[in-house]
Known about the structure:
- With 939 residues, the chain is of the alpha/beta class.
- It has 27 helices and 39 strands.
- Strand 13, helix 8 and strand 14 (300-303) form a beta-alpha-beta unit.
- The relative contact order is 0.07.
- The model is unreliable at 1-6, 384-391 and 620-653 (pLDDT under 50).
Amino acid sequence: MQTSSDRHEYPAHWEADVVLRDGGTARVRPITVDDAERLVSFYEQVSDESKYYRFFAPYPRLSAKDVHRFTHHDFVDRVGLAATIGGEFIATVRYDRIGAGGTPASAPADEAEVAFLVQDAHQGRGVASALLEHIAAVARERGIRRFAAEVLPANTKMIKVFMDAGYTQKRSFEDGVVRLEFDLEPTDRSLAVQYAREHRAEARSVQRLLQPGSVAVVGTGRTPGGVGRSILGNIRDAGYTGRLYAVNKAFPGYQEELDGVPARRSVRDIDGPVDLAVVTVPAERVPEVVTECGEHGVQGLVVISAGYADSGPEGRERQRALVRQARTYGMRIIGPNAFGIINTSPQVRLNASLAPETPRPGRIGLFAQSGAIGIALLSRLHRRGGGVTGVTGVSTFVSSGNRADVSGNDVLQYWYDDPDTDVVLMYLESIGNPRKFTRLARRTAAAKPLVVVQGARHGGVAPQGHAVRATRLPHATVSALLRQAGVIRVDTITDLVDAGLLLARQPLPPGPRVAILGNSESLGLLTYDACLSEGLRPHPPLDLTTAASADDFHATLSRALADDTCDAVVVTAIPTVGEGSAGDSALAEALRSAAAAVPAKPVLVVHVELGGLAEALSAAASTAPQAAADVPEESWPAAPAQRPPTVRAPEGAHLIPAYPAAERAVRALAHAVSYAQWRRDAADPGKVPEYEDIDERGAAELIGGHLARGQGLTLGAQETCELLGRYGVHVHRALPAPTPDDAVAAARTLGYPVALKATAPHLRHRADLGGVRLDLADEEQLRRAYAELTELFGKPEELRPVVQGMAPRGVDTVVRAVIDPAAGAVLSFGLAGAATQLLGDMAHRLIPVTDREAGSLVRSIRTAPLLFGWRGSAPVDAPALEELLLRVSRLVDDHPEVVAVTLEPVVVAPRGLSVLSASVRLAPPPARDDLGPRTLPAY
């Protein structure tokens, strides 16, 4: 690679795979001396016009001197990057550090000149934009803060690349050349542009997999049975609208067809393009197939084959090699060990999966990492009768298997814009990038419901086959953060389907008030109790008696829906006998017609042994979407925040979901109520307030000075107080008391009454153990308390006693902030004490926290009533507590080196609060991949 005279070793961490605008992939890597031939070959394929734009003059070929210059870099002052596909260059970018006069320079000069060259065949794919992100990140790492570029006015494409990047820039025109200068520090606009490009590229990459114009099933057996033959039959039987091929190198040369499908010995033998290859051959043969597909120009792979990371360390390395090989050719992979994919759109009708039946078309997007769970979910959504029933269908289905490449994040990007998907259901066993998933989930949930059940919640490790970054956060904290992002978090796949059916068929409830009516008093009472348990506000059940007719149900439901004090209705029904009793079909029609008259409120049915009713309620019409044209790229948002959070009414909203148990129906309704409230709150998320007394620069200086002493350290008491004070957080003064005389001196300084506390780790924050003495009014009480503590717990050097002035009485709380390497910065709040620790009653929010989120954080713990006047006590100063939370949030957000803060206890009084103890830990901040250039997970 680089010669010994080069100043730095080859920077392997700059290598990355990126998704381009059209959904294909490319590899970005540094250019080295070994790339001379590739560079010459690349340059020969560039048009004369592009060469002219690059060098401002005719430049038909590179000289030996040019090749040496463009391949020899020191990776500090001179850096070149190439985008490659199939190992060959498709684009290059380089920077050269310059001084004030534009001459070559070294550090501390912080400006560089940058220039691009993109092969004409690959222009318009977003290659230059991706390279700009990566070269800018490299430059920042090397101390360069500003780029300059000179561009001919006619080179409008390159000018647009620079102007659209979102950086703060300056533009001038001199000597017939446009000169652009721009700072490399990420801005809100540059991040928004980056996220929008990421969204467009990843959505397009999934679209190419789910909407292929041609499919080849590689590994179809010559005899009936087997995975490949089964998938081929499923694709054919579903009525796939594109071209389908069966591929097996064992086919005899004379064989032209298999089951009516064109048969070929190799993908290379197929005339015309192949968009998608479904790979079912044994794992040891997959590399050969990938090579054939890559050389033929296949756009993506669904790898059904097992024997990868699911089979142990050797298989994990095989999986890494598979991903690297596929990306070399610009292909994306679903799998390996995948169950397959389904698209029910009339324009596609693809069932490239092991599912024996293609699900009915509908409005639900379904993602499952597990094939077995995928089968169960498809079956439950498909079947009629028994349990939750109905024909609420699937728009698209993806089973990711080992999720080596395409993940739930990628599919979310696709579903966000998909006009055929109104509700998203996901079964996840691991979250590879929680920070990104939370960002995408928040955006998706603002447009359409996202319901998630997570498996392997308590295992502590990712399932075999999943390569994910570890998080130190407990599952309850992760769940709380998902709910903050608008995710409807459920515990079982039964709940997943229950919630999905309601959200796909019915409007969101405007509030928690529930009317209950039916022909069974007992079932009505069970429903009433279930509503109370789920935090809803039910009206007393209305019993129509077992003699109720279909007309009675219709009239009563119509009155309930017309009632302004009702937000949703649960109808209960049991089998009846007698001439006047309602039949299944008549009752279903009565309920449907009443619900259709007031479409803004949801209606649910709880039935007991009425399979016919459930089927009749679901059989009104197909939920298949109308044909919709692809959304043009021009209409996609420039940034996620610009997309209006509007949702079309669900197709077939007059279909009423039926449940076999009151608890299941009410639980689904409660999820819908919470989600609807989140949607209303998300419309006005609040703001991160500015405080004039915050000294951000002073805090940065303190942090820099402390970190100069070491890579990670916990600050001492005085240092902690000084740093927190820069952000307006004042810790109640405490003085060490190693002897009784020192304790008395401290009390005189602070003034009586005082508290005496043992601060040893095993006694800190454990008032229940007796290590604290309060309201000591004079020296005699203080000395007596000191003697009691040392007699009970040991010598003073073991107890580490301190004396502290008494704070106003109030409620003891705890405030914590921590930076998790996977999820990001998290702010937590709860009441202090062993009971809260035992119950896990803590609430969590992602940092930065807005004023509205701080208010909801305080009120979302189960013990919150203790703060607001429970049983006649005085309410605490909630605004002061919320301000404290906001100040801690600002500290951690402004200074990522603050990796942990604990304030415990914080005594919140009716007026004001007192922070009695605090600790702060500093460390170099973990890498923020969401602030860097777009990359795919590395293998």
